[in-house]
Amino acid sequence: MDKLAIEGGLPLAGEVAISGAKNAALPILCAGLLSADPLTLTNLPHLKDVATMLRLLAQMGVGVTLDGVDGVVLEGAGLNNPVAPYEMVKTMRASVLVLGPLVARHGEAKVSLPGGCAIGARPVDQHIKGLQAMGAEIRVEQGYVHAKVTSASGRLKGARICTDMVTVTGTENLMMAACLAEGETVIENAAREPEVVDLASCLISMGARISGAGTDVIRIQGVERLHGATHSIMPDRIETGTYLCAAAATGGEVRLTRTSASYLDVVVDKLLDAGCDITCERDAIRLKAPQRLKAVSLRTAPYPAFPTDMQAQFMALNCVADGAAVIRETIFENRFMHAVELMRLGADIRIDGNTAVVTGVPALQGATVMATDLRASASLVIAGLAAQGETIIERIYHLDRGYERIEEKLSRLGARVRRIP
C-alpha cells in the first residue's frame, strides 16, 4: 500500500491547474446510461473512482472510448447487463447513481448497496422512496437493491417527491430517472450543489427538460428518449479549496487556474477572515497568505453553507493559526477521525460530540500518520506541508480517489513530497 512522504516547512508558491470535479464527473458518467447515442465528456479527472465507474459502465455493455488526455466517449446502445456487483462498487458510494438511469431506460436494475451499508444508515433510502413514488417495484435482498418498472408502458411515472433530508446523490439519481419518466416530476428539498447543476446542464444538452436546478425545487418534464451530447465537467471546487488551504497553512502564495471562486464563496470568505489576500479572476484564483493565520470558526451545512468536504482541511489550517476555533460538523457522523492523527503531529484539539475546539500551536512536528478517508487524507497532507521535519502518511489510496496527481501538483508548487510504493 502506497505512502506519501512530506518534508514540511516550505511555503507553497507558483501556479497549478485544477482538475475536473470528481463529484460532478461520477453522476454525469452515469448519465451515459440514459441514451443509446454517444455522450462525449471532457475535463474528466484521472481518479480511481472515475476509473471504477468506467469499468462498471463497460461491464453493463456501455461502450467506453478514451478521447485525448481528459476525454471519454460513452455509447449506451449496447446496454445489456443492468447489474452493479458488490465486488466493483464496494469502495465507491457513488455507484448507487446507476440505479435511477438503469431503471428509467432499461426497466430494471440490480445494484449492490455500496460498502454493504444498511438501508437507513445513509440516505440510500431516499433514492428508493423516490423511485417507488415513480412506480418502481423495489426489493432489498442479500445486500442488493432490485428495482423493476411494472407499468404497461414500461416507463416510470412522474411524481412529486419530497426527500426527508437534503441528499446530493439522491437528488441526482431521481433527476436522471425522471428525465425518461412519463409526465412531470417535482423534487422538493432538492440539493442545490453546483455538481447537481452541472449534471442538469449535461442532461439538458442531451434533450432533457429540467428547470430549477440550483434551487430546492427541481421540475423535470419527462421525454421519450435522450440524444447524444458533448459536455465539459466543471472544475473541482473541493480540490480548489484544498490547495488554497495548503498555501494558506504554509504561508505561501499560489495561483490556481482552470477554476472559479463562484462555487466557493463561503470558503473564500473564511480564508479572508483568516487573513489571506485573495484575488478572483474569471477562471483563476490567487492567494497570498499572511505571516500567521488567524483562527476561524465554522459550521458545516448543505450548500451554499460551508461544505463538509472542506471541514478537515480547515481543521489542519487552524492547527497552526493564532487563537482558537470552534468547528461544528452537522452533516456526517464520525467525521473527526483525522483529529487524532493531527494530534500526533502536535495539534491541540479537543473533541466533544460533533464539535471540535482547535487551538493553534506555533509549529507542528512531522510524524507517521494514517489516512482514514478522502478529506481526512487531505488534512494530513496540509498539516504535513506545514510541519517541521518529515511526515509519512499511510493508506493514501484514499487520496487517489479524489485528488489527481497530488504529489506532482504539490511538487510544482515547491513542496518536497514523494510517493513510497
From TrEMBL:
Lineage: superkingdom: Bacteria
GO cellular component, one term: cytoplasm
Residues that bind phosphoenolpyruvate: K22, N23
InterPro entries (UniProt xref): Enolpyruvate_Tfrase_dom, Enolpyruvate_Tfrase_sf, MurA_subfamily, RNA3'P_cycl/enolpyr_Trfase_a/b, UDP_GlcNAc_COvinyl_MurA
Localization terms from the record: Cytoplasm
A biological process term (GO) from this entry: UDP-N-acetylgalactosamine biosynthetic process
Keyword Cell cycle among UniProt keywords: yes
Xref: PANTHER family: UDP-N-ACETYLGLUCOSAMINE 1-CARBOXYVINYLTRANSFERASE (PTHR43783:SF1)
Organism name: Oryzomicrobium terrae
Keyword Transferase appears in the UniProt entry: yes
Residues of the active site: C117 (proton donor)
HAMAP family, A to Z: MurA
Keywords (A to Z) from UniProt: Cell cycle, Cell division, Cell shape, Cell wall biogenesis/degradation, Cytoplasm, Peptidoglycan synthesis, Pyruvate, Transferase
Described purpose of this protein according to its UniProt entry: Cell wall formation. Adds enolpyruvyl to UDP-N-acetylglucosamine.
Pfam families listed in its UniProt record: EPSP_synthase (PF00275)
EC number: 2.5.1.7
Membership in a protein family: Belongs to the EPSP synthase family. MurA subfamily.
Domain Enolpyruvate transferase: 7-410
Pathway involvement of the protein, from the record: Cell wall biogenesis; peptidoglycan biosynthesis
The name this protein goes by in its record: UDP-N-acetylglucosamine 1-carboxyvinyltransferase
Catalytic activity line of the entry: phosphoenolpyruvate + UDP-N-acetyl-alpha-D-glucosamine = UDP-N-acetyl-3-O-(1-carboxyvinyl)-alpha-D-glucosamine + phosphate
Record-listed 2-(S-cysteinyl)pyruvic acid O-phosphothioketal modification sites: C117
Molecular function terms from GO: UDP-N-acetylglucosamine 1-carboxyvinyltransferase activity
